[in-house]
Amino acid sequence: MIKPILTLTSVLAVSLMSTSAFAAGQCEKVVFSDVGWTDITTTTAATRQVLEALGYDVNVKVLSVPVTFASLESDDVDIFLGNWMPAQSGTINPYIESGEIEAVATNLEGTNYTLAVPAYTFDKGLTSYAKIADFRDELDGNIYGIEPGNEGNTYLVGLTEANTFGLEGFKVVESSEQGMLAQVGRLVKDNKDVVFLGWAPHPMNAAFPIKYLPGGEDFFGGEGIVQTVTRKGYVAECPNVGKLLENLKFSLPMENEIMGEILNDGVQAGPATLAWMQANPEVVLSWVDGVTTLDGGDAAAALKAELSL
Question: What mean pLDDT is predicted for residues 229-256?
Answer without folding.
Answer: 97
